[in-house]
Amino acid sequence: MLDGQRITVLGGGLSGRSAASLAKRLGARVILSDLSEDCPPLEGVDNHMGGHPEEILDVDLLVVSPGIPARVPAVVRAQELGVEVTSELGFASGFLPPDCPVIGITGTNGKSTVTSFVSQLFGAADWKVFAGGNLGTPLSDAVGKDWDVIVVEVSSYQMELPGRFSPSVAAVLNLTPDHLARHGSMEVYAEHKMRLLGCLREGGVGILPASDANLDAHLDDLSCRVLRFDSPTGFELNGDKALIDGDEILLSDLEVPGLMNRWNAAAACLLARLGGLPSTSLQPSSLRALPHRMQTLSVNSPYVWINDSKATNVEATLAGVSGLDGEVVLLLGGAGKDGANYPALRALYDGPVVHVVAFGASALEISAALVGLPVTRADGLLDAIDKAEALACPGALVVLSPACASFDEFDDFSHRGRVFESLVESKTQGDPVRRNA
Q1: Contact at 8 Å (CB) between 237 and 261?
Q2: Domains, the chain, ordered by start
Q3: pLDDT recorded at residue 431
């Protein structure tokens, strides 16, 4: 399909390597370029590590990994030279069967969970489903295989250069401040999120929050049909029931805890319906949490331990914790983000939270924001677990939902979550404490 074409892929991470491998498999002459000299070469392509010299732009197509902003000099220069520029997502989309339903899901919080839930619903109905994109498996890996449906988590980074990405159903779950260092403002961030709906194929359906001024500012740019979450056009959530297009979906057997996950499950049912799954095939009781996202740990303990390490901002913590049933001792802390609204967490004391343990680099700032309320400071995650255990009553929920990034103590949120699980397992099994995982 690409015989004789010259393609350069910028970025030697997972997405870039997948795109380069696909281009090579389709017959192109491929260059893989990364700024790091330590990036491992990819067999069968021309590797340029340590920089992006202009000679690598003498090609027919430039594929840009999502971690590389569209404003970097190599991308800008390629556009000046008239080279077609696209993302890995856009590149791979050109080789998917045109009749295969594609569901694209974005949002600041919850997009991985909803993507996983949608794929699980299709899988429980014996559909052959690909789930990936920003979730972990690049879309390029889906090319050349037989799928009944493709479910893609989409980041705002990927929408800087959407290329030929063309879903049949697209959703923006929510929008709260994040990634502003890259996008510069909420207005630009919203614009990139809304590009997903602008990519919809003819006859496609988009779903938006019931109301969001930043997103709604771009409605006039759309020609697709638009539905709204939390409304009769999308779904109405009432306790353990969701009403979708007149059908009542029971969520009472959902094993993933919290009001937010009932919302996520309802959203997933709506998206699966729009993607072609009959309402009679929806089985929300089959849904399981992704690791580090309101994940209940299977340990023998008088407390319920929940790993929500993925909650790296205040809004995610509020959404995940506010609907929990029972008394909550909440672990907050880590590397705080600029402008984090920690005082908003005070509202959790009107709900399930009875005590906060603040740890890590932002512990002092969080404690100051919650002054006058029950807060205990800890030196690090291990100390936070010890203090939470001492504060909790039997049957209480001890929840790691940090509202912060992890980079003060850990490599990323998944490393933090794994260490949390390891420490809890060690304590409940009486094993020596392990500080790394």
Answers
A1: no
A2: 6-89 (3.40.50.720), 96-286 (3.40.1190.10), 295-429 (3.90.190.20)
A3: 54
